[in-house]
Amino acid sequence: MRLSRIPHDAGEKRGHGSPSEPVTTLRCSAQLRRRLGPVGGAEVPPSGQLGDWYARIVATRPRHLVLCTNECSLLCVVIPLAPQRQLLDRFVEAAQHRINQIPAPADARMKERAALADVQVGRATNRSVIGGMNEFTYAIDAWFAHRSGDDEVADVRL
Q1: What was the pLDDT predicted at 9?
Q2: In this predicted structure, what is the pLDDT of residue 149?
Q3: Which residues of the chain are modeled with pLDDT < 50?
């Protein structure tokens, strides 16, 4: 997987191949962007039918998580935040695994997985998706609260 940052201006070249090459933007909350480093402003349209993904930090104990939600389908994956350097690799792996679980034709799933080959980090812009993610965060908190006495929570593999 190649990591590309969105260029700072429209005249700057993006660090990957032709415009037809699959691209997905992980649109991060301000809190997550601060942890990942600076991002630019030029927008690149998504190449997959599912569109871009949104990500935000969910503060839980014993470790922080990242909730990633697809813009079009609201399909979600939850991954550990740490180590941050490998966050995008974990996101791609989790999203590809989740896409494989969708009951759709194999070629459609393959195209969506291919769109995750080049992930850019961008700024979250869709307030509807952000609002939905807030609700999903409450569900994650409730799940942990409900299972707080359960030994499985300590060993949950995300």
Answers
A1: 35
A2: 56
A3: 1-18, 151-158
Q: Angle at Cα 156 formed by Cα 36 and Cα 87, nearest 5°?
A: 15
Strands (DSSP E) along the chain, which ranges? 2-5, 24-28, 53-58, 65-70, 76-80, 118-123
Q: What residue type is assigned to position 75 of the chain? A: L
Per-residue confidence (pLDDT) for residue 47, from 0 to 100? 74
The pLDDT, as a whole number, for residue 40 is: 57
Structure tokens of 67? 């909730």
Q: Which residues pair with 96 in a beta bridge?
A: none
In which order are the strands placed within the sheet that holds 2-5?
Answer: 2-5, 118-123, 24-28, 53-58, 65-70, 76-80
Q: Is 122 within 8 Å of 26 (Cβ atoms)? A: yes
- Helix 106-115 to helix 87-100 angle (10° resolution) is 170
At 77, give phi and psi (nearest 5°).
Answer: -135, 145
